[in-house]
Amino acid sequence: xNTLSTSELNRIDAWWRAANYLSxxxxxxxxxxxxxxPLSLDDVKRMLLGHWGTTPGQNFxxxxxxxxxxxxxxxxxxxxxxxxxxxAVVANTYLEGSYxxxxxxxxxxxxxLRTLFRQFSFPGGIPSHASPECPGSIHEGxxxxxxxxxxxxxxxxxxxxxxxxxxxxxxxxxxxxxxAWHSNKFLDPRGDGAVLPILHLNGxxxxxxxxxxxxxxxxxxxxxxxxxxxxxxVSGHEPALMHEAMAKALDGAIADIRRIQHEARTTDAxxxxxxxxxxxxxxxxxxxxxxxxxxxxxRTFRSHQVPLKPREHxxxxxxxxxxxxxxxxxxxxxxxxRLNSDIAAQAPSGTRRMGTNPRANGGKLLRDLRLPDFRDxxxxxxxHGSRGPGDTxxxxxxxxxxxALNQDQRNFRxxxxxxxxxxxxxxxxxxxxRQWVAPTTSSDEALGPSGRVLDxxxxxxxxxxxxxxxxxxxxxxxFNCYEAFIHLVDSMFNQHAKWLxxxxxxPWRRPIASLNYLLASHVWRQDHNGFSHQDPGFIDHVxxxxxxxxxxxxxxxxxxxxxxxxxxLRSRHQVNVVIAGKHPAPQWxxxxxxxxxxxxGIGIWQWASSDAGTDPDxxxxxxxxxxxxxxxxxxSILRERLPALKVRVVNVVDLMRxxxxxxxxxxxxxxxxxxxxxxxxxxxFAFHGYPALIHRLTYRRTNHDNIHVRGxxxxxxxTTPFDMTVLNELDRFHxxxxxxxxxxxxxxxxxxLRTLxxxxxxxxxxxxxxxGEDMPEIRDWRWNAGAAAR
Length: 790
Ligand SMILES: Cc1ncc(C[n+]2csc(CCOP(=O)(O)OP(=O)(O)O)c2C)c(N)n1
Known about the structure:
- It is a single chain.
- This protein is an alpha/beta fold.
- Helix 19 (625-641) links the parallel strand 19 and strand 20.
- Helix 2 packs parallel to helix 3 and helix 17 packs across helix 18 (591-600).
- The protein starts with 5 loop residues before the first helix and ends in an 11-residue tail after the last helix.
- The protein binds thiamine diphosphate.
- Thiamine diphosphate (TPP) binds at residues 53-54, 82, 84, 142-145, 168-171, 174, 200, 202, 204-206, 210, 284, 304.
């Protein structure tokens, strides 16, 4: 028996035709939206920018999802993997009414249609992709590869939600997408929603066939089954047959999803389900021009963008008009240009419409996290420089309690590529397992079908994509990662930052929780990994983005880390990068002092300085835990050997304080900057990352010429922790030597010290090569100026 009645089939086909008509109209038309008169060149845009090829397939999917939503009363959102099919999502959200509710000027009449067409890919209008401006979108799809991970991120902790995710067959060739199929091993059918992937096998990319379309059907099916999915193929090109096949496939998929969820939610079944997915094998450029300039277009890569160029080829105008009229617009829209009511009635109502589902405007659903008082986790700092267990290890119990306090709300997750324990955050596993729906053995630790930590897939791309999807649908999270390998998601970070930038200017999009990176296992302490694991360049990458969106924090110790993390978890619509160590390290500030220091973002450490609050001869600045340690060790040498020298110690937690306020909202005024760094004293700046960044951030400051930066110089290997700093001339001895270079007035006093320091460096080298560890005087060094921490 057929799934669709004839009238249902006709209505769904009419919706599809309407969406196709609106899509072609968006790509081509400036005017004459209802073809009330013969098309003229004046009706056609001068610059034709957009993508047709993927669009009819996505329109087809959307039309059928609408039917499924109504029929099964689904809570569903739509992700357009090949987001260049923007005309499709715009057209469908317009047809369902969501679009005009947000943009009343794009009204449901002829004038609105004209605006809809004109604005697309047009100066002052909207982008050609499923961009943030498009209601219902959480995924721009400009950079291909992340649709499925976003879909899973959205589905976590949304037990009623089904995320319908169109995956391009070209997109499926990207690394992130190819690994994303495995996300099904992390979806808990009890507490999470479902993801319904629809692999859009239209056969072509921009100029090539796709791999998945050119492997035998059986091989493709085995591949998808091998990833743990149960694929259902919908193949063909004849609309009536395809409508019936798609409706049937969707009903089947929804039934399977419901069965899986019902079983999981009502029994003790723990076996990993094989979730359904659909493979939609339809022609690229379906229903568009078949042959243009003597070449096949429909079902080829030639349909990818704009298949007709009426201004270049006179005969294309007629082809375009025929194409538009082939959808029979007079049957679809009434005299006023409004979609005929019997067609419009197919749309789901209210927030069931995919363009209006609040999950796709996550800020609307965002609830504050319940946060424990971070001060309760403070480490005691009886004297400046007392030993801590490792800063992230102090943070761990705080995060553990964040997890525990929000278990009921189910709105906080920690993501990591198999590194949460390694990064010193193992405490969180005291209150939650790592979510893992595959089988376990008795030797596994802290794995379970439902948990707040997702760290059991070695894929930075999935962690990033899942977290983004989670945040975009109104929840909170943290991504912990080795510093060097966070670069794997540079590009994903870019896209997310772009999304934040655009949405921050859309009043109807509510702010979402910030994307928080905790980069532990950083460049300076990759003791057992070496050069491949040493790279602090993510900071440089991040600061390229719009200043009001990015924050970079380098807490010098555990109490500062606690304060910074509390702040980040409360913040909205930003990207926060926090860099912290996991190895035992000196602690400098008691909690009250740390809290104030972090709120200020920068401070003079008077207890370590010898300028007695007067104009210093030298500023020793530091940013990052290891640079802070080496700076204080350098200062102790200076204070012991050159007691008359007036040294000021400045510590920077919030890197953005260095920029002028015109460049970043956290920027220090010039007067404040000068008050910290003086206008003429030499500044030796020990920095966690590449030195050039400090110059870039401070080049407009009065004293910039006197700022001498030491940081990572791309020197690394397996060696001792202190030797890493020596190799990069960030160690205490080089810092003092740098200071002496810039204090010529010291004369012979400096010469003696210089000789001593050079001897120390030689001694260090000899010692580590003989003993395989740092010299005792380095390992056991303590800040001994004697002042108690306050
Ligand atoms: C990561 C990435 N690489 C390259 C591109 C350029 N690009 C845009 S569309 C496209 C082809 C996409 O093919 P597919 O995913 O199959 O989409 P469809 O055929 O449905 O248009 C390419 C390569 C991109 N957008 N993103």
